[in-house]
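Design a sequence for this backbone.
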């Protein structure tokens, strides 16, 4: 599993440079809509309850912290901050052209 070398919060989204040379990109609203916390994904059923369409269109990540050696947590402009995004999740939902094409 690759680890992030750099996490950059930019106006167009979140950019992560991984130690395996991969470069990931996530639009803010998209990644906020992928939040894995218990408020966004039902704890018992695993059913997603909050989707990108439910998130304000102007949402953006304001800050982030590393969680152990396995995840990052974002502070969003809509005051949401409970989601812990594992490195595995971030790689699975990467929105770079190569990853999107590979999932088709």
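Sequence:
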């Amino acid at each position: 599993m690759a680890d992030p070398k750099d996490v950059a919060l930019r106006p167009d989204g979140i950019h992560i440079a991984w130690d395996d040379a991969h470069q990931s990109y996530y639009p803010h609203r998209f990644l906020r809509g992928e939040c894995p916390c218990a408020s966004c994904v039902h704890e018992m059923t695993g059913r997603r309850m909050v989707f990108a369409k439910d998130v304000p269109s102007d949402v953006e990540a304001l800050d982030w912290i590393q969680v152990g050696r396995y995840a990052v947590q974002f502070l969003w402009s809509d005051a949401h901050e409970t989601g812990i995004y594992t490195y595995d999740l971030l790689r699975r939902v990467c929105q770079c052209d190569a990853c999107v094409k590979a999932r088709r």
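The chain has one domain: 4-103.
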